[in-house]
Design a protein that fits this description.
Two copies of one chain form a homodimer. The first copy, chain A, is mainly α. Chain A has two domains: about 50 residues, Homeodomain-like (Arc Repressor Mutant, subunit A), CATH 1.10.10.60; about 160 residues, Tetracycline Repressor, domain 2 (Orthogonal Bundle), CATH 1.10.357.10. The first copy, chain A, contains nine helices and no strands. At the A-B interface, helix 4, helix 6, helix 7, helix 8 and helix 9 of A face helix 4, helix 6, helix 7, helix 8 and helix 9 of B. The structure holds a DNA duplex (30 and 30 nucleotides). Chains A, B: It comes from Pseudoroseicyclus aestuarii. Chains A, B: Keywords: DNA-binding, Repressor, Transcription, Transcription regulation. Chains A, B: Pfam families: TetR_C_6, TetR_N.
Chain lengths: ~240, ~240
DNA sequence: TCGTTCTTTATACAGTCGTATAACAGACGA
DNA sequence: TCGTCTGTTATACGACTGTATAAAGAACGA
């Protein structure tokens, strides 16, 4: 799993004779926040491409164009950096989806429809993102630091969803108590998560372009809205290549 | 991440002086199938408890009560064993859920309700199972061997679901063409996956006991069934502690 | 009871892991 | 232009990785 015996010697070219005066790699100093972000994104890149086992300190550092020692300097430990990369990812994910709902100030139905659809369309529908997400989810149970990040980001997502659902329910005269809203938000979140997941993995069993339609139709039924209450906003959406 | 510096020396007691006549560990030979199953289950245990990084060949072997060399003997490589452990897990998961639907030969609605509910109740609702599942899902993109296992098990699940949905739609006079069934199965699968996932992780944001009710109510809406068409079978279900 | 078979143990190996430490050098104020 | 600060590189260390190999011993037929 680790030991692919014959690896390239990786001599890196452009080295001066080296035995005489061992010249060092030139570098530039960055502000703490900038270097941290670069490392976090390199971490996500590595995990996304090669999985958790392929994301070693040395490999991440190389990806970020620095040496491995910097990890300790900026994050204290590898573990801590990976944890922060998870938080970084989840912040990105939910903020991107929430932004999709804000774009355009139409009816409550339109906003909800855009949000639901955006979660099962590119760029959110992405094997890389699902791989990353899944890798981290695998650590939520048992590793305390991960579970609080998960809980926080899940709560955030539920709240966004609740704020989108409530006005729609009111407008259509459906029960809209906090409890009703919450149950529906939980269910709708499940639907979105599951479709996003399977759609992203792109197993070839169906065309992912069908997902926005499937998701919106299911959401209508789930919320007991009249047919096409959400679906009719599908044409507003940006085209899918 | 790997190097917890001060590990127990792990001397194992019950050793004869050892320098004189180096006695070997006693063992018993097992049939190939039995030893393989034992190793696969030890693999799942290790990944479930410590994550992918904690599931080394030596640790898995120790868990199974053997030495690491056996992995090569029975599986050829560590990678191959882990892949087969994934297939083993997915077979378990879907067959357990399908069995829940078979138990009791009532109406189509009851069978569907049992299946949906079983997926969001113990013992399917389990942090261990979600952790395992997520860890493997993280490898589906990019590692070819995993993607075919994923596709096969997903297709299997979809087919089970379709067979359960169809008679219910017919009975209630809803559209039941293959295409309609398939779209609904995809959506319902998403709902089940998502609720199973979040419920298993048990973030403390709501009581998982509410999940069967939420899932069944959402499924009713999703399939456009009359209210309580599925929910009224909830009382048949085995009590949740 | 002896031989044979082949699962299993034991050990060695090269490579990678995370991280601690010390020397270097970029950036900036004086 | 020189010092100072500290972000960064380089290197060493011990633990652990997967796997290849050979010896051992459990099970079973004759």
């Amino acid at each position: 799993m680790v030991n692919k015996p014959a690896q390239r010697p990786q001599n890196e070219q452009l080295h001066s004779p080296k035995a005489v005066t061992p010249t060092r790699k030139s570098f530039q100093r960055l502000a703490d926040a900038d270097r941290r972000r670069a490392l976090l994104e390199a971490t996500l890149d590595c995990i996304g491409e090669a999985g958790a086992s392929g994301a070693s300190a040395r490999r991440i550092a190389e990806r970020a164009g620095v040496t491995a020692g910097l990890i300790r300097h900026h994050f204290g430990s590898m573990d801590e950096m990976v944890r922060q990369a998870y938080a970084h990812l989840m912040t990105q994910l939910t903020s991107e989806a929430a932004e999709a709902a804000r774009a355009g100030g139409d009816s409550p139905e339109a906003a909800l429809a855009r949000f639901v659809a955006a979660n099962v369309m590119q760029p959110n529908l992405s094997p890389r993102k699902v791989s990353l997400w899944a890798t981290f989810i695998g650590r939520v149970d048992g590793e305390a630091g991960y579970s609080v990040i998960h809980r926080d980001s899940y709560r955030e997502f539920l709240e966004v969803l609740t704020r989108l659902i409530h006005p729609v329910l009111v407008k259509h005269g459906r029960p809209s108590s906090p409890e009703a809203c919450r149950s529906l938000a939980i269910a709708l979140n499940g639907l979105i998560d599951g479709l996003w997941l399977e759609g992203s993995l792109d197993h070839g069993l169906y065309d992912p372009h069908r997902l926005p339609g499937i998701a919106l139709s299911a959401a209508e039924g789930l919320l007991r809205l009249p047919d096409t209450a959400l679906l009719r906003h599908l044409t507003d959406l940006p085209p899918q290549d």
